[in-house]
Amino acid sequence: MNTQQIAISIPVDMVSVIDEISKRKGVSRSKFISIVLHEKIATEKKQCLKNEYDSIFSDEAICREQLDTAKWFEGADADEGQEW
After folding, report:
1. How many domains are contained in the chain?
2. Stretch (H or E) spanning 72
3. To 5 degrees, how large is the angle CA 72–CA 75–CA 77?
4. Does residue 24 or residue 78 have the better pLDDT?
5. Which residue among 7, 18, 35, 56 has the highest number of C-beta atoms inside a 10 angstrom radius?
6. Which of the two residues, 34 and 73, has the higher pLDDT score?
7. When comparing pLDDT for 60 and 45, which is higher?
8. 28 within a domain of the structure (yes/no)
9. 3-state SS of 10-55?
10. pLDDT at 58
11. Which structural domain, as residue segments, surrounds residue 69?
């Protein structure tokens, strides 16, 4: 993985906690911060996806279309073409 050094300012008390945790986990301060940021970014991406999904399916017209399509599939009762 390519890396890039950056400079950030962190409160002193937080640095102490980061150092304690990273030491306990046996990783460098940089690695620990990188892991935490990676986890936070993954969580944010999931939340954004959920928000988009919720936004789309809160639209009444889309919900109605989805329900109508589901009902159509339920009523089709055709096994042909469903061998898989």
Report:
1. 1
2. helix 60-76
3. 125
4. 24
5. 18
6. 34
7. 45
8. no
9. CCHHHHHHHHHHHHHHCCCHHHHHHHHHHHHHHHHHHHHHHHHHHH
10. 82
11. 46-74
Instruction: With respect to residue 55, please indicate whether it lies within any of the assigned structural domains.
Output: yes
Q: Does 47 score more than 90 pLDDT?
A: yes
Which residue do the tokens 């009444």 mark? 60
CB 32 within 8 A of CB 25: yes
CA distance 25 to 32: 8
Residue 52 lies in a domain: yes
Question: Is residue 56 situated within a structural domain?
Answer: yes
What gap in Å lies between CA 67 and CA 11, rounded to an integer?
Answer: 52
pLDDT for 55? 85
| Structural contact between residues 29 and 17, judged by C-beta atoms closer than 8 angstroms | no
Q: Are 10 and 18 in contact (CB under 8 A)?
A: yes
